[in-house]
Design goal:
- The complex is a heterodimer of chains A (312) and B (316).
- With 312 residues, chain A is mostly helical.
- The termini of chain A are close together.
- Chain B has 316 residues and is mainly alpha-helical.
- Chain B is elongated.
- The chains are: A mainly alpha (312), B mainly alpha (316).
- Chains A and B meet through helix 1, helix 5, helix 6, helix 11 and helix 12 of A and helix 6, helix 10, helix 11 and helix 12 of B.
Chain lengths: 312, 316
C-alpha cells in the first residue's frame, strides 16, 4: 500500500513537473502574448518590461526561477492585469471554486448512492426506471445545457431562485439557496454515473454468500444492505471518485459561467481569451494540483475500504 | 449438416453477423434512422429554407416562434410581444435570435458544423490511434515502452485544459482548428485499444503464415491486422463522435470554439443562455438547439452501445 501510494505520489509530482514545464514553454513562445509581441515601446520601457519578466536573462535561468517560484507557491505575474500577480487573482477565486466543487461532489454522492441503492432494491420496477432515465439524461444533457434550462425553469418560470450570483454570507439561509442550482448542475452527470455504478455494484454483491449468511442469522434487511452490502458494493463508486474530480473541475468552468460565479473557471476562460498566459498557467497548475491530490486521497480511501488493495 | 463438396451454405463474415445482431436492437436502429434524419436535415435545410442563416430581420428581433399563441404571449410568465405586421407576418418556426436571425435555419446550420467537427475530429483521432497503436505493438521492446509512456503522460495532462490552451494560442478560431485540435488530443484511448488487439493478433497463426510467406510488416498490418481490429475500432469511434461533439459544444459555449459568423449548437446554446433575462424570457433560443443536441447525443450513444453489443465477442 505505501509503495503503491508512493508511486502514485511520485507520478503526480512528475505530471505536475511536466505541466509546469509546458506552462513555461508556452508562456515564453506562444504568439500574441504581451511578452513575445509587444507593441512599439520606448527602448527604456521595453528594457523595463524585460527586466520585470526576467527576459534579459538566459532561458534556463528564467526556467529555473519560474520553477522555483512555483515550488514556493509563487505563480508569477499576470500578463494582462499588469499590476497584479497571479496569486492575487487566483486565491480568492480558488476559495469560491473549491466550495462549489465540494458542493457538487457532495450532491453527486448524496443523490447518486441512494438512487443507486433504491434502483438495486427495486430492480426492474419504477425506481429502477427512474434512475435509468437520470442516467440517460446525464449522457445527453450536458451541464452547459442543463444550467440554462434550470435557470429558465426555476428562476424565470417559477421564481424560486436567483438566476446568478454567489452567496454573500454563509449564515443566511436565503443566500445559501444560491448554491443549490449550480451544485446540482455540476453534479447531475455524476449522479447519473454514481447511481448506475452503485446499482451494478450492489446487484453484484447482494448475491454473495456472506449476504445470505447475514440474512440467515436474522439481521434486518436495512442492516444487511447498509452494513454488509454497501461496504463492498460501493467500491466501484470510490474508484470513480478520482476521475470525477477532474470532470468536476472542467464542469465548474461551465457552471461558473452559466451562474456568473466569481471562481477560478471564470479567470481561466477570460485569461485564455485575453491570452494572459501567466494567469492561464497559474490556474492550470492549481487545478492540476487539486486533481492529483484528490486522486491520491481517493486511492487512500480505496485502500481503507478494500483491504485487498493494501496487500498488493 | 456438413456437406463435403461445395454445398456448404455461404459463410458469414464477422461483419455480417454483427450487422444481423445490430438490426435486432430496436432502440439502436431507431436511433440510427433519427441520426440520419437529423444529419440529412443539417445538410438540406440551409439550402431549402426560405431564410438565410445570417439575414437579420429588424421587425422580428428576439421574436417568439410563430405557433406560440396570443394568450401564451400575454401571460405574465413569458412577457414577449409578437408584432403582427399585416404585410410582413412572422414566418419563423423557431423564433428569432437577439439580432433577428431565423433560429430554425441556424439550428440546422449549427448542426452541420457540430456534425462535421464530430466526424472529422473522430476520423483524425482514429487514424492517429490506429497508426500509433499498431506501430507501438509491432515495434515492441523499448520503442513500445517509450511510446506507451508518452501516452501515459498525455493521459495525465488535463485534456480540456490542453485543448483550451491550444485554442487560446491560435488567434483564428476557425472550423479547421477546432476539429484538428480536438482530433489531435483525442486518440490516446484508441491507441491503447489498438495496441492491445494487435499484440494478441500478431501472435496468431495466420500472421505467422503471412510472415513465413515473406509478406512485409506494413502489408501484414494493412491486410491482416487492420481488418481484424475493425470491430472494436468502429465501436469506439462511434462512441467518440458524441464525446467530441460535446467537447466542441463545450468550447463554443465558452467562446473558445466556433465563432461568428459560423455557428454550432454550442454557440447557439451560449447565445440562448445569455438571452435569458428577466425582461424578456426568450426560452426558444436555448431550448431548440438544446433539444437537437440532446437528441443527437442520445442517438449517437445508443447506436454506439448497439454496435458494442453487436460486436462484443463475449456476449455471443
Amino acid at each position: 500500500m505505501t509503495g503503491f501510494l508512493l508511486r502514485r505520489a511520485v507520478a503526480g509530482v512528475l505530471t505536475l513537473f511536466v505541466i509546469a514545464t509546458l506552462c513555461f514553454l508556452i508562456s515564453r513562445f506562444a504568439p500574441g502574448s504581451p511578452i513575445t509581441s509587444e507593441k512599439q515601446h520606448l527602448p527604456e520601457v521595453k528594457a523595463n518590461i524585460e527586466r520585470h519578466y526576467w527576459l534579459d536573462r538566459p532561458l534556463y535561468v528564467q526556467y529555473g526561477r519560474t520553477l522555483l517560484g512555483y515550488f514556493r507557491g509563487d505563480l508569477g505575474p499576470s500578463f494582462y492585469y499588469r499590476d497584479r500577480t497571479v496569486n492575487d487573482l487566483v486565491w480568492p477565486a480558488f476559495r469560491v471554486s473549491i466550495v462549489l466543487g465540494c458542493a457538487g461532489f457532495v450532491v453527486a454522492v448524496l443523490l447518486g448512492v441512494p438512487l443507486g441503492l433504491l434502483s438495486a432494491a427495486c430492480q426492474n420496477r419504477w425506481p429502477d426506471y427512474l434512475s435509468m432515465s437520470v442516467a440517460i439524461g446525464g449522457i445527453c444533457i450536458p451541464n452547459f445545457l442543463l444550467g440554462p434550462l434550470l435557470v429558465l425553469a426555476f428562476c424565470f418560470l417559477f421564481s424560486w431562485f436567483e438566476p446568478a450570483g454567489w452567496p454573500a454570507s454563509w449564515t443566511d439561509l436565503g443566500e445559501l439557496k444560491r448554491l443549490l442550482l449550480p451544485s446540482f448542475t455540476l453534479a447531475f452527470i455524476h449522479v447519473a454515473y454514481i447511481s448506475r455504478l452503485t446499482r451494478a455494484g450492489m446487484l453484484d454483491v447482494m448475491n454473495k454468500d456472506y449476504i445470505r449468511t447475514a440474512r440467515a442469522k436474522g439481521l434486518a434487511e436495512p442492516a444487511v444492505v447498509l452494513k454488509h452490502g454497501l461496504k463492498n458494493g460501493i467500491t466501484p463508486v470510490v474508484s470513480y471518485l478520482g476521475p470525477m474530480t477532474a470532470l468536476i473541475v472542467t464542469g465548474s468552468i461551465v457552471v461558473e459561467k452559466v451562474f456568473d460565479i466569481p471562481g477560478l473557471g471564470q479567470h481561466f476562460v477570460k485569461a485564455a481569451l485575453n491570452r494572459d498566459y501567466g494567469l492561464v498557467m497559474g490556474t492550470v497548475l492549481v487545478y492540476s494540483t487539486l486533481v492529483i491530490v484528490f486522486n491520491l486521497a481517493v486511492d487512500i480511501l480505496y485502500g481503507i475500504l478494500d483491504p485487498r488493495v493494501r496487500i498488493q | 449438416m456438413s456437406s463435403p463438396s461445395g454445398l456448404l451454405p455461404p459463410g458469414r463474415t464477422p461483419m455480417e453477423l454483427a450487422f444481423r445482431r445490430f438490426r435486432k436492437n430496436r432502440k439502436a436502429v431507431v436511433s440510427f434512422f433519427l441520426l440520419v434524419a437529423v444529419g440529412f436535415g443539417t445538410v438540406a435545410v440551409p439550402f431549402l429554407a426560405t431564410h438565410e442563416f445570417d439575414r437579420q430581420d429588424y421587425d422580428y428581433v428576439r421574436s417568439a416562434p410563430l405557433w406560440v399563441g396570443e394568450d401564451a404571449l400575454q401571460s405574465a410568465l413569458l412577457v414577449v410581444e409578437n408584432k403582427r405586421l399585416p404585410d410582413h407576418p412572422n414566418t419563423f418556426w423557431m423564433g428569432t435570435d437577439a439580432v433577428g436571425r431565423d433560429l430554425f435555419v441556424r439550428v440546422f446550420k449549427g448542426g452541420r458544423i457540430s456534425f462535421a467537427v464530430g466526424l472529422l475530429a473522430t476520423a483524425v483521432s482514429v487514424l492517429i490511434g490506429i497508426a500509433y497503436g499498431s506501430i507501438s505493438a509491432f515495434a515492441g521492446g523499448k520503442t513500445d515502452l517509450v511510446m506507451m509512456r508518452f501516452v501515459d503522460i498525455l493521459y495525465g495532462l488535463p485534456y480540456m485544459f490542453i485543448v483550451i490552451i491550444a485554442m487560446a494560442i491560435f488567434e483564428s478560431r476557425s472550423f479547421l482548428l477546432v476539429f484538428l485540435v480536438l482530433g489531435l488530443f483525442g486518440w490516446m484511448t484508441l491507441s491503447r485499444i489498438v495496441r492491445g488487439q494487435v499484440l494478441s493478433l500478431k501472435e496468431r497463426e495466420f500472421v505467422e503464415a503471412a510472415r513465413a510467406l515473406g509478406v512485409s510488416t506494413p502489408a501484414i498490418i494493412m491486410r491482416h491486422i487492420i481488418p481484424n481490429i475493425l470491430g472494436p475500432v468502429i465501436v469506439y469511434a462511434t462512441l467518440t463522435v458524441p464525446s467530441i461533439m460535446l467537447s466542441e459544444s463545450f468550447l463554443s459555449f465558452l467562446g473558445l470554439g466556433i465563432s461568428e459568423p459560423e455557428t454550432s449548437w454550442g454557440v447557439l446554446i451560449n447565445e440562448g443562455a445569455r438571452a435569458l433575462s428577466p425582461l424578456k424570457v426568450a426560452w426558444w433560443l436555448v431550448t431548440f438547439p438544446g433539444v437537437f443536441l440532446a437528441l443527437t447525443l442520445f442517438c449517437l450513444n445508443s447506436v454506439g452501445d448497439g454496435l458494442r453489443d453487436a460486436f462484443d465477442v463475449q456476449q455471443r
